[in-house]
Amino acid sequence: MRKNYAVIAAGGLGTRLKDYKDNEFTKVLIELNGLSMISTQIKQLQSWGLENFIIITNPEFHDLIVEDVSKNYKDLNIQYSVQKSPNGIADALSYAEDKVEDSSLVTFVLGDNFFGANPFLGIDFNSFKGAQIFVIDVENPQEFGVMETDSKDNIINLHEKPKDYISSLAVVGLYIYEKTCFEYIKELIPSARGELEITDLNKIYMKKKLLNYKLINSWWIDAGTEDRISELKGLI
Length: 236
Known about the structure:
- The protein is of the alpha/beta class and 236 residues long.
- It is built from 6 helices and 13 strands.
- It has helices at 37-47, 62-72, 89-94, 181-185, 198-207, 226-233, and strands at 4-9, 31-32, 35-36, 52-57, 77-82, 105-110, 113-115, 131-137, 145-149, 155-160, 169-178, 211-215, 220-222.
- The protein has a 7-stranded mixed β-sheet with strand order 5-4-1-6-11-8-12. A two-stranded antiparallel ribbon has the order 2-3. A two-stranded antiparallel ribbon has the order 7-13.
- The chain is globular, with a radius of gyration of 17 Å.
- The chain starts with a strand and ends with a helix.
């Protein structure tokens, strides 16, 4: 069985939720029905069959995240890496490179994204090539990155929060890559906001015709607001 590392981007500060129910820490330490967000996500990934974890933290809350996870998961293979500064999601992924064995896969998930059914069902990891994104039909695509397809449902472009309607297929915060992703990240140029964008990484695979996608048919929550966190608590 090909090794598959779950890399969790848990370095964001979640400033919009800084005062959520007297929260004094980073977003991933917000409690969800008795378990922190980060520990809840590890539980979710475990249920999908993932066993090896790399958590990308930030300097300010690294120790607290390690303390929380260690308390809840004493026997898991969990490694940590600190993203020195918030230079984008693709930059966060790059901090896992030296912890991933050659020929392994990387499942990269944003620390506030949660799912209903297991999205990996039907994916053959042993023959996996390139990269895979996951999309879901939404009513507010302007809030997300979206995937554009042609008349035959082939990917033709990816757009980051388009102002004008292009597609209702939002790209969720879950990605699968071969280890080539780390070399491609080194080719990225910072965007207008000074970050290495995950969309630009996915576009490299798209141009090489190595980007696949899967439509999610169950629920998905990007728990970045108080309302979404309340909704998530009712689902998990």
